[in-house]
Amino acid sequence: LAQAIATAASAPSEAAAASAAAAASVGEDGAPTVCLQAGPFGSVEMGIVTSNLQGIVPRESWRTEDITLNGLWFVYMGPYPDRELFNRKQAELKAIGGISFREVRTPSSLANGFVLGRFEQPQEAQAALNKLKERGVRSARVVIIRPRMQAQNVIVPQATAGMQTSLNGVRLPQGKRFAACP
């Protein structure tokens, strides 16, 4: 049993090592390199990232990749002004049965509420809301968390050991970090 637990515990690190090895190559000086990436970042965040990378790694050693982030909509109930009302609504949801939900703590504008579903399309969220209303959920609504948007990843295709160390110290928005390329 202990060996099975140890094997299971090491599986993620072995997978990460295999991914890093697959992304590894050799730089011009023959030293091993690894592909690293961070993101996604919106346009304002990219300005911060670009500024923070200056002087850390040469500009020609990294590139950006445009990506599209799908929108995100919640079917949401709340926020509730006090814990008593919050607990009462939670009991009502449990009494209906068959509804999965989770408490929201962030963003603060939605704290003390419940997410009853996450969707990438507003039509899907509205359809789920309609089904919930048929089951007796009256105060839920659809809220947009993030519209569909363009963003960028930062990619360092051949990060040397020195670059890897430097990139670990770069402050990125939202606490993001460089990691092995997929």
Estimate the global geometry from the Cα principal axes: elongated
**Percent of residues in beta strands?**
25-35%
| Secondary-structure element pattern, one letter each | HEEHEEHEEHEEHE
Q: What is the multimeric organization of the chains shown?
A: single chain
Q: Mean of residue pLDDT? A: 86
- Number of helical segments with 4 or more residues: 5
Category from helices, strands and their pairing: alpha+beta
Percent of residues in helices: 25-40%
Q: What is the number of beta strands?
A: 9
Question: Low-confidence spans: pLDDT under 50, at least 5 residues?
Answer: 1-23
- State the major sheet: 5 strands, antiparallel
How far is it from the N-terminal to the C-terminal residue, by CA? Answer: 32 Å
Radius of gyration: 22 Å
Task: Explain what the structure shows.
- The protein is α+β, with helices and mostly antiparallel strands and 182 residues long.
- It is 37% helix and 30% strand.
- It is elongated, with a radius of gyration of 22 Å.
- It starts with a helix and ends with a strand.
- The model is unreliable at 1-23 (pLDDT under 50).
Keywords:
single chain, about 180 residues, alpha+beta, 4-stranded antiparallel beta sheet, 5 helices
Short description:
Helices cover 37% and strands 30% of the residues. The protein has five helices and nine strands.
